[in-house]
């Protein structure tokens, strides 16, 4: 196992265009081995209701071990959902033993405060900092088009120890531009990593939006449906969005929510050069 630890805030500052992939723990070793590109890091999702935080052999941690054994940089998701301090204490020790120093901390789907020792993401971040100092580089979720109240909550998480932001997937460049401006106006200076979801048809887009409770404009829906009717690839919309953000506001790192369909994302990245 490599003893080298690289924090996300350093990895995203590598010169030139860089990218990272989000995976779910059911990814196979063969799929990872077949990958023809090298993301600067892989994030691994954490679904507490599936594994119940029952031990250190749960699927996300098995995937973390696999990626680390192949010399990959890893960002592990961690939710407040079903999380007890006793388990977290064991987990933090395990992660340090595995040279994992990056965490993406979120509340979790259908979170129930009665089954967790942590009542908010901020509380969880503070606890991790109290236990481990600055060992971990901590990311949090940012939601473009959020309210002023949500923006202040985001700032509070950063003030309590978070280091960077990964946005929810968005599909029009103006949305990210506005979000960055809002962050700057309220004093948020942390790095913002744009979250990107590549879809091939309207049905895939609709399912993703339903899953993550996202939204798009009616105009965007009409553009996608028009492309489908004409036989043009819907992926061209995402390609153009990424190109526009690179050229117009100098965004150099993009985080792809792959849903384990990494080859499609690799094909897009090849086109981006």
TrEMBL record:
- Give me the Gene Ontology terms describing cellular component: cytosol
User: Hey, which family's this protein in?
Assistant: Belongs to the methylenetetrahydrofolate reductase family.
GO molecular function terms listed in the Swiss-Prot or TrEMBL record: FAD binding; methylenetetrahydrofolate reductase [NAD(P)H] activity
Is the keyword Flavoprotein assigned to this protein? Answer: yes
PANTHER family for this protein: METHYLENETETRAHYDROFOLATE REDUCTASE, METHYLENETETRAHYDROFOLATE REDUCTASE (NADPH)
**Which keywords does this Swiss-Prot/TrEMBL entry list?**
FAD, Flavoprotein, Oxidoreductase
Stretch forming the signal peptide: none
Pathway recorded for this protein? One-carbon metabolism; tetrahydrofolate interconversion
Q: Which InterPro entries match?
A: FAD-linked_oxidoreductase-like (IPR029041), Mehydrof_redctse-like (IPR003171)
- Read off the Pfam families from this record: MTHFR
Gene Ontology terms: biological process: methionine biosynthetic process; tetrahydrofolate interconversion
Which superkingdom? Eukaryota
Cofactor(s) in the UniProt record: FAD
Against CDD domains, the record matches this protein to: MTHFR
What name does UniProt use for this protein? Methylenetetrahydrofolate reductase-like
């Amino acid at each position: 196992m490599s003893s080298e630890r690289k924090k996300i805030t350093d990895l995203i500052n590598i010169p030139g265009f860089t990218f990272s992939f989000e995976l779910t723990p059911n990814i196979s070793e063969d799929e990872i081995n077949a990958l023809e590109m090298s993301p600067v890091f892989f994030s691994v999702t954490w679904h507490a209701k599936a594994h119940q935080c029952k031990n250190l052999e749960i699927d996300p941690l098995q995937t973390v071990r696999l990626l680390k054994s192949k010399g990959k940089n890893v960002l592990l998701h961690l939710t407040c959902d079903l999380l007890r301090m006793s388990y977290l204490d064991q987990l933090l020790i395990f992660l340090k033993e595995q040279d994992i120093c990056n965490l993406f901390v979120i509340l979790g789907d259908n979170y129930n405060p009665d089954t967790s020792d942590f009542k908010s993401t901020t509380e969880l971040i503070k606890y991790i900092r109290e236990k481990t100092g600055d060992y971990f580089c901590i990311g949090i979720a940012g939601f473009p088009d959020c309210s002023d109240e949500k923006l202040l909550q985001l700032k509070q998480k950063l003030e309590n120890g978070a280091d960077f932001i990964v946005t929810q997937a968005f599909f029009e460049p103006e949305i990210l531009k506005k979000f960055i401006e809002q962050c700057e106006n309220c004093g948020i200076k942390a790095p913002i990593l744009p979250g990107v979801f590549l879809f091939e048809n309207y049905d895939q887009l609709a399912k993703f939006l339903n899953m993550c409770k996202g939204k798009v404009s009616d105009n965007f829906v009409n553009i996608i449906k028009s492309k489908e009717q004409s036989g043009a690839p819907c992926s061209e919309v995402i390609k153009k969005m990424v190109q526009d953000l690179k050229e117009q506001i100098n965004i150099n790192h993009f985080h792809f929510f792959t849903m384990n369909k990494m080859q499609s994302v690799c094909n897009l990245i090849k086109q981006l050069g």
